[in-house]
């Protein structure tokens, strides 16, 4: 990446240069912080932690931590400060926006609004919909994409990918007025990839727009919003190795520019007169009121740079090797059952959910942590309707332990030993008297 130079106000005419990162020169898979973490297990021993919970939050990449550390000495306010540190921090913040835009292959006229996370981003879009918009959403969604819509048509989990396209087609055909199809790119429960290009095509045929929840896709696959003809994409930094509290909503500017500001306050406003407030038309200012999370944005951009610099084929190759090993290991254990919507051969990212005969998901997760030093997630993964569907369970409260599963998820820093330890631990558990 080349250095970015900004020229500030005519009075100072100072040039502020953001140093170029080394990311584009480094094609090794970067390290994550915490790979040497040791955790206590039963009996008081310390063992190396096997983090298999990346789908919840991924550890911080070293280049991300380095970028934040490098930005801290000059850390200052953004957008309104005349001081050099403020100008430098503003340049870094806006460069981060530029990097995130390129990372998802956005169109030049798309907006990139920094948010707290994916949930914040979907809620921002929900508040920005033209009046009377109907959302069409599958029951398989994470709650962040399932719940924000005031007016939604909910579609049952489709039996196969083509059925998803057919169901969306039929639902969109029956709706008058503005419509938005909402779909996840990769399931946070099964890891399965959804046919987002075909769904975008169908949405546009009906004059609808499409929002893709890419929270679980972007840590694992390259996404190109323009090539896929998507209208909006949302994701979180903390799942993308940048756990500093920033996410993004990227996409078409018109709805965002016309919407009421998401937060009312400084930064979103152009002028405040006695009886009138003039809001910024530019969505990036209009919807980022208050002091933004600059370090979060810098971290997010550093993660984008680091993943691109490593090369997606190297990342994919390593992930497929490890998730293949894990799934084969699980499949070979009698009493462990992987959850899947579209069958074992459907392509997926590095996420696998399963149930274990004779044990609740909570029991399994506690044994894995307390006896083997393995971190997994158990529960319904903020996707209650979908998990119930996969388990053939009826409606139940959040505490319904029978309708829960265990989820193991991998990423940069996962090793064969982590995967093998999980498989061996489950085998041990099932062989206990
Ligand atoms: C597919 C998907 N969408 C949205 C979210 C919500 O992300 P966040 O908690 O960062 O808002 C998650 C988090 O697990 C997710 O997996």
From TrEMBL:
Its cofactor is pyridoxal 5'-phosphate. One of its GO terms (molecular function) is lyase activity. Coiled coil: none annotated. Keywords: Lyase, Pyridoxal phosphate. Residues 51-422 form the Aminotransferase class V domain. It comes from the Bacteria. InterPro entries: Aminotrans_V_dom (IPR000192), Aminotrans_V_PyrdxlP_BS (IPR020578), PyrdxlP-dep_Trfase (IPR015424), PyrdxlP-dep_Trfase_major (IPR015421), PyrdxlP-dep_Trfase_small (IPR015422). The lineage of its organism: Bacteria, Bacillati, Actinomycetota, Actinomycetes, Streptosporangiales. Signal peptide: none annotated. It holds the Pfam family Aminotran_5. Belongs to the class-V pyridoxal-phosphate-dependent aminotransferase family. Csd subfamily. This is Selenocysteine lyase/Cysteine desulfurase. It catalyses: (sulfur carrier)-H + L-cysteine = (sulfur carrier)-SH + L-alanine.
């Amino acid at each position: 990446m080349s250095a970015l130079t900004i020229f500030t106000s005519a009075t100072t005419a100072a040039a502020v240069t953001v140093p170029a990162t080394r990311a584009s020169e480094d094609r090794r898979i970067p390290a994550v912080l915490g790979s040497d973490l040791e955790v206590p297990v039963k009996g008081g021993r310390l063992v190396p932690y096997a983090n298999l919970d990346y789908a919840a939050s991924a550890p911080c990449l070293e280049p991300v931590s380095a970028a934040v550390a490098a930005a801290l000495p000059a850390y200052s306010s953004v957008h309104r400060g005349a001081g050099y540190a403020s100008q430098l921090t503003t340049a870094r913040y806006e460069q981060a926006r530029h990097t995130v835009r390129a990372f998802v292959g956005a169109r030049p006229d798309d907006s990139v609004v920094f948010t707290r996370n994916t949930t914040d981003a979907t809620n921002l879009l929900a508040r920005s919909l033209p009046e009377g918009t109907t959302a069409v959403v599958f029951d398989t969604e994470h709650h962040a994409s399932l719940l924000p819509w005031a007016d939604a048509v909910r579609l049952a989990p489709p039996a196969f990918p083509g059925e998803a396209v057919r169901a969306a087609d039929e639902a969109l055909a029956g709706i008058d007025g503005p419509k938005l199809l909402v779909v996840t790119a990769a399931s946070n429960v099964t890891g399965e990839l959804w046919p987002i290009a075909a769904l975008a095509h169908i949405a546009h045929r009906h004059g609808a727009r499409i929002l893709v929840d890419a929270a679980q896709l972007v840590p694992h696959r390259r996404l190109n919003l323009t090539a896929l003809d998507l209208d909006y994409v949302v994701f979180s930094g903390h799942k993308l190795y940048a756990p500093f509290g920033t996410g993004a909503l990227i996409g078409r500017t018109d709805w965002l520019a016309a919407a009421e500001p998401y937060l009312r306050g400084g930064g979103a406003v152009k002028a405040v007169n006695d009886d009138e407030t003039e809001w910024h038309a530019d969505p990036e200012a209009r919807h980022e009121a208050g002091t933004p999370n600059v370090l979060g944005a810098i971290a997010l951009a550093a993660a984008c740079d680091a993943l691109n610099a490593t090369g997606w084929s190297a990342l994919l190759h390593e992930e497929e090797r490890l998730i293949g090993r894990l799934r084969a290991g699980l499949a070979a254990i009698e009493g462990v059952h992987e959850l899947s919507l579209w069958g074992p051969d459907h392509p997926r990212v590095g996420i696998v959910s399963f149930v274990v005969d004779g044990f609740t998901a909570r029991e399994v997760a506690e044994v894995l942590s307390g006896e083997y030093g393995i971190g997994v997630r158990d529960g319904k993964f903020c996707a209650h309707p979908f998990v119930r569907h996969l388990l053939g369970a009826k409606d139940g409260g959040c505490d319904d332990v029978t309708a829960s599963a265990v989820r193991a998820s991998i990423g940069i820093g996962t090793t064969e030993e982590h995967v093998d330890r999980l498989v061996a631990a489950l085998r041990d558990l099932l062989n206990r008297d």
